[in-house]
Amino acid sequence: MRAEELVPGFTPENELERRVVQDPELLEGLAWGKPRKAHPEGSIGAHVADLLERLDASGVQGDERAWLRFITLVHDSFKNKVQEWRPRTGENHHAMRARRFAERYTDDETLLTAIELHDRPYGIWRKMKRTGRLDRRRLDELMSRLDEPERFMKFVELDGSTEGKNPEPIRWFRDQLREWREAA
Ligand SMILES: [Fe+2]
Ligand SMILES: [Fe+2]
Fold first, then answer.
1. pLDDT in tens, 96-121
2. What pLDDT is attached to residue 41?
3. How many Å lie between the centroid of ligand 1 and the Cα of residue 119?
4. Ligand nearest to the CA of 114
5. Cys-Cys with 173: which of 38, 86, 95, 121 at CB 3.0–4.6 Å?
6. How remote is the CA of residue 47 from the centroid of ligand 2, in Å?
7. Does pTM top 0.85 for this prediction?
8. Exposed (0-12), middle (13-18) or buried (19+): which is 158, by Cβ within 10 Å?
9. Could you tell me the pLDDT band of residue 40, with boundaries at 50, 70 and 90?
10. How many contiguous H segments (helices) and E segments (strands) does the chain have?
11. What is the pLDDT of residue 179?
């Protein structure tokens, strides 16, 4: 199937998008997935379509739009490659798999880092909820790797804005970011 069918409403807007959506590995990942609690929309392609639509509605333009669109296209598209019998960490985390894929198409480190870390705020928040303690070291590591925290936050907010997702971790992370800035 073509990207235009897997991601309803999608049309490539630049050369990079045109190239990446021709990659069979990306297409396979976009086709994958069933409706789940955090993703009632179903396939990854449907999730991507939803985010692209929200991005259109947000009115973000130019370079930032291109940046957010590229992340949107690849960030969850390698969940099908996660090996379920191994821990979902390090190279086996879907976000790291997506980053590795994106490395073949861009050397924009800010972009690659955003892909790699897109679920990290949620992960830290969830661990905090579970254990009752904030993993300060992990949060510091995340913050220090963001050289454009504002852009990163935009993607995290976009990704977290979909139906069925808890808004609490996003609010928490925005506060953390503010504190981090004020302390700097
Ligand atoms: Fe993700
Ligand atoms: Fe996502």
1. 999 999 999 999 999 999 999 999 99
2. 66
3. 5
4. 1
5. 121
6. 7
7. yes
8. buried
9. low
10. 11, 0
11. 95
DSSP string over 27-93: HHHHH-----SS-TT-SHHHHHHHHHHHHHHHT--HHHHHHHHHHHHHTTTTGGG--TTS-S-GGGS
pLDDT reading at 170 higher than 90 = yes
Structural domain boundaries enclosing 166: 3-183
**∠170-67-141 over CA atoms, to 5°?**
50
Q: What is the mean pLDDT of the chain?
A: 94
Report how far ligand 1's centroid is from the alpha carbon of 98 (Å). Answer: 9
Domain count, the chain: 1
Residue 95 Cα, ligand 1 centroid: separation in angstroms? Answer: 6
* Ion ligand 1 residues within 5 Å by Cβ: 76, 119
- Ligand 2 centroid from CA 136, angstroms: 24
pLDDT at residue 91 tops 70: yes
Tell how far the Cα of 99 is from the centroid of ligand 1, in angstroms.
Answer: 11
Distance CA 142, CA 135 (A): 11
Measured in Å, residue 93 CA sits from the centre of ligand 1 at 9
Secondary structure letter of residue 167 according to DSSP: S
Q: CA 19: distance to chain centroid? A: 20
Which ligand is closest in space to the CA of residue 82?
1
